[in-house]
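It is worth pausing here to work through a concrete case rather than discussing structure prediction in the abstract. The textbook approach is simple: state the sequence, then state the predicted structure, then interpret. We follow exactly that order.
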Amino acid sequence: MLDDFLVRAALAGVGLAMATGPLGSFVVWRRMAYFGDATSHAAILGVAIALSLQLPIGVGVLVVALAMALVVSALAARGWAMDTTLGVMAHGALAFGLVAISFVPGVRGDLQNYLFGDILAVTRGDLVFIWGGAGLVLGLLIWRWQPLLTATMSEELAHASGINPGRERLALTIALAIVVAVALKVVGALLIAAMLIIPAAAARALARTPEAMALGAVALGALASLLGLGMSLWQDTPAGPSIVTVAALIFAGAAVFGAIRR
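Step two, the predicted structure:
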């Protein structure tokens, strides 16, 4: 079955949705959209470093994304203005990555794949990496679910309950770095934040509990991946942007339905 490139692409999209759904819910609740954007833009710098050192792409992206997320978290703890800091770091990391990757021989032609993904070229090894990363993220979020929810609602309540909000932020930071590494092959560095935010935002308009929102985000993300792949094959459009386009349409429909229900 895995010899069929379309089946592999569909499995990759569903695996990505399993990771981005619950994590994206926390990104939406905590208003961390720009944080996710900065971490995902750093992926290009990770690609350049990995290619220069002849390391696996996923390893380079994971290390750089984790470093970016930790730096941003440290600056936030020191009271830096996060909107300006994230803007500088997001675009700076992307620019550094694009400049660095231009010095790597034979990569310029593949740059679009790193920016917008190449889900139709997913291999069996990529599937193992994507599903393994999704499993790690899911395991981490399930393990820390209640403390994460408490810290998200109120840090004062978390302290009163014996929960360290900093530790929960670190858990989210690690999960976000893993998702960036997993998603690069599927939707590319520029669209990772979209897959984190849009399905979760769509599920928010339909769900009544945090758990329902997380599960709904997984379902809507998987649906967007499958329909986006179908649109790509039908209209010969880029697969990654097609997936995000379908996700945006699903969000619009969910927003209208939620408004009518209210």
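Step three, interpretation. The first helix runs from residue 5 to 29. The chain is about 80% helix and 0% strand.
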